[in-house]
Design a protein that fits this description.
This protein is mainly alpha-helical. It contains twelve helices and five strands. It starts with 18 loop residues before the first helix and ends with a strand. The chain binds fe (ii) ion (FE2) (2 copies). The site of one fe (ii) ion (FE2) has 5 residues, from α3.
């Protein structure tokens, strides 16, 4: 169905035919806008930003580009096209028709899953709200705002499901989503990572590379859901999500490129010297990778999880790309995984596949994370340096699951608590690293100009030149 932009809330769900739902969402809309004004991007609400907006949900050309003030962005409700006779693709209900309504017995679990996903969307906008004040270019500023408005739309996507399918509890949860705030002492966001402020652009690129990619995998799992409206919502969100990871990957690529240029020019890879020349050295980059990768791994949950097994059994949440697996039932199979044996050693555990779904999903995520790292390393190698960025072991610095409370080094070797605490200074960004990165963060807003620590992008947005005025400030 085409997207109807005539209505106050653009949508392709025929909202006009459900007056009660329409009224409830129109009631929520001004509160969302208040939230956006108060906790959305600071200082740019009246700027004209070159944004893409969804105009249809089919694969080809769903986006149009144009300058809009962010508060006028047409946040709306867009679901991927309805698939005729869609069947449940996994679990005990395999092969039965997908649900168009919420089955009573799964109501509270589904609501919890949607609220948890929904909570991350506004959280990231809140975390990133001050970044515009230190943007390295107008191009980057525009990308930040594109990510922010789309997270705002993802927020709408989840609120729509709550309003449309969960009655009064759903409406209450939608209110709560506006009341929790990232980093709020009394009323924080649900997941830990989403309460960390993101106040420098290196962290922003790491977040969009590693944490938005966790989002991708969560959405892929929910896109398999037996609850068809959720599956269709998530499928469309995934098309928006890929831009966020593009921002992260290319951001890091450009930081590396700039560092390599400086290394060439100075004929040195000495971090101290490179810092004197205002670029981000590769060992510092590695420490940021260690931090963001390990904290994003926790978002997948425990390796052995009865919740995950229940979600899978009941059809609520599958595995990313479920159709590519041969066995969609998984009652007779096991996965093997390394676990600490409690005596300083490591042993292999046999876990029923259904209980290991989080780990199966994490496997896919780690492989996906490696793709960009390999590309970054190729650039370093091509420039004639033998430095190699690595992802730390999945055991490293975990707060959830088998390896929480089991100190390891980044290679995953078990070490003493003491050695771990000492090692962290060298493995994670130190206060000095953070202070240095912060010292680089100075706003650059002249069209085409880039901050000294980052190379220009290969090309602009939507065939515009790099020096296009992506954001018009007033
Ligand atoms: Fe999102
Ligand atoms: Fe995202």
């Amino acid at each position: 169905m085409a997207i109807n932009y005539q209505e106050r809330i653009p949508n392709n769900v025929d909202l006009g035919n459900d007056r009660a739902l329409q009224r409830a969402l129109e009631h929520w809309q001004p509160r969302f806008l208040d939230w956006w004004q108060e906790l959305g991007p600071e200082g740019f609400q009246s700027a004209d930003v070159y944004l893409r907006t969804a105009t249809s949900v089919d694969a080809a050309g769903w986006a149009t580009f144009g300058k809009v003030k962010m508060p006028d962005y047409r946040w709306g409700i867009f679901l991927a096209d309805h698939e005729q006779d869609r069947m449940i693709g996994f679990g005990d209900e395999f092969g039965k028709p997908a649900w168009q309504r919420v089955p009573g017995e799964h109501r509270s679990t589904l609501r919890r899953l949607i609220v948890t996903q929904g909570d991350t969307e506004p959280a990231s906008v809140e975390q990133q709200r001050r970044l515009g004040l230190t943007c390295p270019s107008l191009y980057d500023l525009r990308n930040l705002f594109q990510v922010n408005v789309e997270e705002g739309r993802h927020f709408w996507a989840m609120v729509y499901l709550l309003h449309a399918y969960f009655g009064r509890d759903g409406r209450e949860e939608a209110e709560e989503l506006l009341h929790r705030h990232s980093g709020d002492v009394d009323n924080p966001r649900i997941l830990g990572t989403f309460n960390e402020p993101i106040d420098d652009w290196l962290s922003f690129f790491m977040f969009t590379y590693f944490t938005d990619r966790d989002g991708k995998y969560q959405l892929m799992s929910l896109a398999e859901s037996a609850f068809d409206p959720l599956a269709r919502t998530c499928r469309f969100m995934l098309t928006e999500e890929s831009h966020h990871m593009f921002v992260g990957e290319t951001g890091v690529t450009r930081i590396i490129r700039r560092a390599l240029e400086k290394m060439d020019e100075l004929k040195s890879d000495d971090p101290e010297l490179l810092r004197k020349h205002g670029v981000i050295d590769l060992p510092t980059l590695q420490r940021y990778v260690n931090f963001w990768f390990s904290s994003s791994l926790d978002l997948f949950g425990s390796e052995q999880s009865s919740n995950a097994a229940n979600y899978f059994a009941s059809g609520l949440k599958g595995r990313p790309d479920e159709p590519r697996f041969e066995d969609h039932n998984c009652t007779d199979t096991v996965e093997f995984m390394d676990v600490p044996d409690g005596n300083g050693g490591i042993t292999s555990a046999e876990v029923p596949t259904r209980n290991a779904i989080n780990e199966v999903t994490r496997d896919g995520y780690i492989r996906d994370c490696m793709v960009g790292v390999t590309r970054w390393n190729r650039a370093v190698k091509r420039a004639g340096h033998d430095f190699e960025l690595t992802l730390p072991s999945r055991r490293f610095r975990r707060s959830i699951g088998n390896w929480s409370g089991a100190p390891t080094d980044p290679e995953g070797n078990l070490i003493s608590r003491d050695a771990y605490e000492r090692g962290l200074d060298e493995w994670l960004p130190s206060e000095a690293d953070r202070a240095y990165v912060r010292s680089l963060m100075k706003q650059v807003i002249e069209p085409g100009k880039m901050a000294g620590w980052i190379a220009p992008p290969d090309r602009g947005i939507n065939n515009q030149p790099v020096d296009y005025e992506y954001v018009e400030l007033h």
